[in-house]
Amino acid sequence: MKWQQRIRVATGLSCWQIMLHLLVVALLVMGWMSNAMVRVGLGLCALYAITLVLMLAFQRFQDGWRRELCEFLEEMTTTWYFGAALIAIWLLSKVIHNNVLLALAGLAVLAGPALFTLLIKDRRRSGDIASKHSVRR
User: Fold this and answer.
1) What is the C-alpha separation between 44 and 84, in angstroms, rounded?
2) CA separation for the pair 100, 24 (Å, rounded)
3) 24 close to 44: Cβ distance less than 8 angstroms
4) pLDDT of 131 strictly over 60
């Protein structure tokens, strides 16, 4: 077994994903040391937004290198989502000083996509069951 495969099995992440995490941590430490955390946080959130928009733009392609790029961007956005959400909440805490509003924003940012996905899946399942199974009377 190659060392990359051993790392993948042990961590669940590929080597490039681990390197991206280390790069983000290094940027955050450098921003903290130079008192530029807000600028670094805004830059990381902007980079995440650009990656997300590119993923959505390339998602409609079903073949070739564009599909591979879309899959790469999709892995990158899912890997970075939690970190970007925490940075966004921290940036909001610089502007919003009400703890209840911050808690609601944090809940929306962190649990919102999961709840949205579950609701969409339930809606799709309920429509599929009715069309696949006949109702006996």
Assistant:
1) 7
2) 29
3) yes
4) no
Rg (CA), the chain: 20
Helices (H), the chain: 3-11, 15-33, 37-58, 64-95, 99-132
CB atoms closer than 10 angstroms to residue 109 = 17
Position 136 confidence tier, pLDDT thresholds 50, 70, 90: low
Contacts of 67 (CB under 8 A, 6+ apart): 58, 61
What dihedral angle (degrees, nearest 10) is formed by the CA atoms of 82, 84, 88, 90?
70
Residue 78 tokens, joined = 């899912």
Q: What is the three-class DSSP state of 97?
A: coil
Per residue in 77-91, pLDDT tens? Answer: 877 787 888 888 888
Task: Specify whether the CB–CB gap between 48 and 84 falls below 8 A.
Answer: yes
Distances (CA, A) of 110 to 29, 70, 91: 23, 23, 15
Q: How far is CA 2 from CA 7, 49, 134, in A?
A: 9, 34, 52
Model pLDDT, residue 134: 55
- Percent share of the chain, pLDDT over 70: 86
Q: What tokens does 134 get?
A: 């006949």
